[in-house]
Amino acid sequence: MRNLIISAALVAASLFGVTAQAAEAPAAPYVELANPVPVAVPGKIEVVELFWYGCPHCYAFEPVINPWVEKLPSDVNFVRIPAMFGGPWDAHGQMFLTLEAMGAEHKVHAAVFNAIQKEHKKLTDKNDMADFLATQGVDKDKFLATFDSFAIKGQIVKARELAKKYEITGVPTMIVNGKYRFDIGSAGGAEQALQLADQLVAKERAATKAAAN
Questions:
Q1: H or E stretch at 206
Q2: pLDDT exceeding 90 applies to what percent of the chain?
Q3: Which of 12, 60, 69, 79 is the most exposed, fewest CB within 10 Å of its CB?
């Protein structure tokens, strides 16, 4: 009887130890989406950043992510998508999509961020946007025409659908190859987020090569 009690105690201790080890295992810094989202450019590894001009964390991320984007290899496609959760999020998102459609230089994107974050401009009215952007060399009439165009309305729908499929709840959030989602907080910081992106890009590259062989 004594031996049975000791054996039971050892089994219980062993099970408790396994449970404790599992509880102590660090959580993955990213979430793997149950339903992967198709990438914009087939054949390339996609890295998406979802952002909002009104987000101070997104603004602080700019000087970190921009140099990284400039050095991305040719098999990686970087895409910025505005998160549109209503109100100013929608207005700013539509402004970004309009500027992107117009082929505005990246310096205009930076100027908009500075105006909202540093100069405290709201830029939620399209006429205010057009007036400000005119100071950055953007044609006012063309901006207003593009802003209300059918093409931009289609891009808005697409951006909202993607954010829903990515299951994002905040910004800045990054998505690698339509499969892996993470943010600066879960990664441990801005630099760590980009390191994680590099790791996941490498993982996807290796998986592609393995599938080809």
A1: helix 190-212
A2: 85
A3: 12
Over residues 61-98, the pLDDT tens digits come to: 999 999 999 999 999 999 999 999 999 999 999 999 99
- Edge-to-edge strand order for the sheet containing 180-183? 31-32, 180-183, 173-176, 45-51, 76-82
Show the domain range for 61.
31-212
pLDDT for res 213: 82
96: CB partners within 8 A, 6+ apart: 53, 80, 82, 109, 112
Residue 85's identity, in one-letter code, is F
Return the structure tokens found at 22: 């599992």
Residue 58 in tokens: 């997104």
Q: What is the CATH number of the domain that holds 115?
A: 3.40.30.10
Answer yes or no: are the C-beta atoms of 87 and 119 closer than 8 Å: no
Q: Is residue 6 part of a domain?
A: no
